[in-house]
Design brief:
Elements (H helix, E strand, L loop, with lengths): L6 H10 L5 H11 L12 H7 L6 E8 L5 E7 L4 E9 L2 E5 L3 E3 L14 E4 L2 H14 L9 E6 L9 H11 L12 E5 L3 H9 L5 E5 L5 H7 L8 H15 L3 E7 L7 H11 L4 E7 L13 H13 L4 E3 L13 H10 L1
Parallel strand pairs: 4-7, 7-8, 8-9, 9-10, 10-11, 11-12
Antiparallel strand pairs: 1-2, 2-3, 3-4, 5-6
C-alpha cells in the first residue's frame, strides 16, 4: 500500500511503473492530504487505474462528538475491519490517540480492546491513515498540519506490532511528510521488555509510557496476563535504561480499580517503587466496561491517591476524563458496533 511508503520510495514506485518522477510528488501529496483516489484532480483516469490496487483505501465510517468536545472516529479499512481513534483538544493543540492493531491479545481485565481478541496487525500506512483522515477532517492538509501530538494508546499493544509501529513513527515524523516531532509522540505499552530494548536501539525521541496498574507482581498478574511473563523489576530496569539513553522522562499509567489496587498500601508500594526516578504517574479512574465486573474508584479517592503520591515526593496527576459519553475508552465503540452486527 502506498501509504506504507516514504516519499523517496513512492518516487521509486512511479519510476518502476513507467511514470515520470513528478507523478510521485502528486501521489504523495494526495495521500498526505487524506484524499481518495477519485478526488485527485491532477492525474488522469489511466494513471488512477494503474495505481488503484496500491492506493490506500480507508475512510471514516463514523464520528461521535462528546459534550466535552472529544471526538471518536471509527476508521474502516479495505478488508472491512474497523478501529477507533480519538481526537482530544488541549490548549497546545490537537492530540490524536491512534490504534495500532485491530483488537488486542494482551487480555488486560479492565480493557474493552481485548474482548474480541486480536484480528490482525495494522500496517504502518494504516496507522498513518488514521492521522491523515482526521487531519483532513480538521481542515488540514500536507502543508497545513492540524494535529500536533500523537499517542499510541488506542486499541492494540504497539510493541506487539513492533515493525509496523516503528515504521509508522518514521513516516509520521518525516520532514517530507506531516513532520510531527518525535518529542510529541507517545507510545504506551503494557511492558514487553525485549521490545522496549529494541525500541531503545532505534534512538527515537518519543515518550515511553508504561501501563503499570499495580505495584506488585502478584496483583498485577490478576488484571494483566503479561505480568506472568515480565516482572515489574524487569520492566523498571528497561525503563531506567531507556531514560539513561534518551533522557526522556518515563510516564506510568495507573488505573484505579475499586478494591483491587487503590488502597493506601498500594499507594505506598507504588511510591517506594518509583521514588527517585524521573517519571510522572497518570492516575486514571477506571472507565467501566459493561462486559467486565471491575468497578471504578471514585474521582475523589483518585485525587486523594494522587495527593498522597505527591506528599511522598512523586509527580502525579489524575487524568481528566474525556469522551465518557461516547464510549471513550479503548475498544468500547468498536465492540458496540461488532455486537450490533452480530
Amino acid at each position: 500500500m502506498l501509504s506504507d511508503l516514504s516519499f523517496e520510495e513512492i518516487k521509486l514506485y512511479v519510476k518502476k511503473i513507467g511514470l515520470p518522477e513528478f507523478r510521485g510528488q502528486q501521489i504523495f501529496d494526495a495521500i498526505y492530504s487524506g484524499k481518495t483516489l477519485q478526488e485527485i484532480s491532477n492525474i488522469s483516469k489511466a494513471i488512477k487505474d494503474i495505481i488503484q490496487p496500491d492506493y490506500p483505501s480507508y475512510n471514516i465510517e463514523r464520528c461521535l462528538t462528546s459534550k466535552d468536545g472529544t471526538k471518536k472516529y471509527i476508521v474502516k479499512y479495505a478488508d472491512g475491519n474497523i478501529v477507533e481513534c480519538v481526537l482530544m483538544k488541549y490548549k497546545y493543540g490537537y492530540t490524536l490517540c491512534v490504534s495500532t492493531q485491530v483488537g488486542c491479545r494482551m487480555g488486560c481485565k479492565f480493557c474493552a480492546s481485548t474482548l474480541h481478541g486480536l484480528a490482525r496487525n495494522l500496517s504502518a500506512g494504516e496507522i498513518l491513515g488514521q492521522v491523515l483522515l482526521v487531519n483532513r477532517e480538521l481542515g488540514g492538509s500536507l502543508k497545513k498540519r492540524m494535529i500536533t501530538n500523537i499517542v499510541m494508546m488506542g486499541s492494540g499493544e504497539p510493541l506487539d506490532n513492533f515493525d509496523n509501529v516503528t515504521r509508522f513513527i518514521d513516516l509520521v515524523s518525516a520532514g517530507r511528510g506531516l513532520n510531527i516531532s518525535q518529542r510529541n509522540i507517545s507510545l504506551s505499552t503494557c511492558g514487553l521488555v525485549p521490545q522496549i530494548y529494541k525500541l531503545l536501539e532505534k534512538s527515537y525521541n518519543i515518550t515511553l509510557t508504561i501501563s503499570l496498574h499495580a505495584s506488585e507482581d502478584e496483583k498485577r498478574a490478576m488484571i494483566m496476563p503479561i505480568a506472568n511473563k515480565y516482572k515489574i523489576s524487569e520492566i523498571f530496569k528497561a525503563c531506567k535504561d531507556y531514560y539513561q539513553k534518551t533522557n526522556r522522562r518515563i510516564y506510568f499509567e495507573y488505573t484505579l480499580i475499586k478494591g483491587v489496587n487503590d488502597s493506601q498500601e498500594d499507594c505506598l508500594r507504588l511510591a517506594k517503587l518509583l521514588k527517585g526516578f524521573n517519571c510522572h504517574i497518570n492516575i486514571i479512574p477506571l472507565n467501566t466496561v459493561k462486559e467486565r465486573t471491575l468497578q471504578s474508584t471514585s474521582r475523589l479517592e483518585a485525587y486523594k491517591f494522587a495527593d498522597r503520591l505527591k506528599e511522598l515526593g512523586l509527580s502525579a496527576t489524575v487524568r481528566r476524563t474525556m469522551g465518557e459519553d461516547i464510549a471513550g475508552a479503548c475498544g468500547q465503540l468498536r465492540n458496540q458496533i461488532i455486537e450490533t452486527k452480530n
